[in-house]
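User: Quick sanity check before I run a bigger batch. Here is a single chain. Can you write out its predicted 3D structure?
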Amino acid sequence: MVTDGTYTAVLDRFELSQEGDELAVLLLERDGDVVDELVVNRERLPETGCHVDAVFEVTVDADGLETVDYQAEVSNERGERAQSRFDRLAERPPDSDEGSEE
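Assistant: Done. Predicted structure follows.
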């Protein structure tokens, strides 16, 4: 169960409920670690933040999601860092023979 407090939340995915409602699955983070997840109706999220990997600051209480604030700049920064890591990993490593004279 999610404890009351303020978290960084990352939109992980969308799902459909058995009733056909579109749900958003938020991964709740504290100090950079995922500590829980929260499932909310998509309508609770700001339209500009209704995309996977969107970052929010959320407040949770005993009734569930109390406040949600889309963090556009943080979302963009995380996306750029992830793309940079991917680009570095995708680079072909130098051939072991490269640079050696025969």
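The chain has one domain: 5-90.

User: Great, the batch can go ahead then.
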